[in-house]
Amino acid sequence: MTDKNQKKIKSNREKSGLYNIGKIILTILIVGGSLYMLRFAKLEVVRDWVLARGEWAELFYVMCWVVLPIFLFPVMIIAFAGGVAFGFLKGAILTMIGAMINTIIMFYISRYIAKDVVNNLIVKRVSGKLREKLLTDNQKTLGILFFILRIMPVVSYNLENYLAGVTNLKLGVHLIETFFGIIPGVVIFLNLGNNALDTKSPAFIGAAILLALLIIIPTWMSRKYFGDIFGNNNNSDIQRDK
């Protein structure tokens, strides 16, 4: 083996080592930051954070959307706070901007940290329809799958973002399904926040009814399109150790 080849192998090993160290550090930061941020997961706290910034309140709210979901902060609280602080229309625009930027960041964080590990776990532990859907290269199938996950409020926004990054879903497809998938939730949660001070108002009651429909309809859609991979069944797609 020539000196040139030896140096190349050594360089690749060093790069791989730094790459793995970077992944470990980033993982620790996300886990530690998540534990810390959950202490502040209250509507009043986020609202006060935003309003205390005065003329910078709009920018600060967008940055809340960009940064906080990375640390598993409940996004419903951020959306409620946006409705309370800015009303429906401005809150919705700012929310969409922040959420789309955050989607890109979380997608690449997930792909950088966990794609290989999670794919191997899916291959070893998941079988049947669920593995087929998650490991496919078909962008239409993945797009529809993640669109349905996105519009279901019972599925964590943070989890969906991180899960998308470890599949073969392309960023462009992910941004499209995210844009259209978060619109129903944005409309409902911003409306709830905007009318939070008058829970007996028709607007608040209407938003609450829409929230219930947002849970029921996507669940029906998932069963219709994907069969039983989201449902309870005796033949689980998740393989367990014996």
Contiguous runs where pLDDT drops below 50 for at least 5 residues: 229-242
The percentage of residues in β strands lies in under 5%
- Which series of helices and strands comes N to C? HHHHHHHHHH
Determine Rg (CA atoms, Å). 21 Å
- Helical amount: over 70%
Distance between the termini: 47 Å
What is the number of beta strands?
Answer: 0
Give the overall shape: globular
Structural class: mainly alpha
The average pLDDT score comes to 78
Number of helix segments?
Answer: 10
Largest sheet: none
Search tags:
242 residues, mainly alpha, 10 helices, globular, disordered C terminus
Question: What can be said about this structure in brief?
Answer:
The protein is built from 10 helices and no strands. With 242 residues, the protein is mostly helical.
Could you describe the 3D structure shown?
This protein is an all-alpha fold. It has helices at 3-37, 43-51, 57-67, 75-86, 88-125, 128-135, 139-151, 157-165, 171-194, 202-226. α5 (88-125) crosses α9 and α7 runs antiparallel to α10 (202-226). The longest helix has 38 residues, at 88-125. The relative contact order is 0.10.
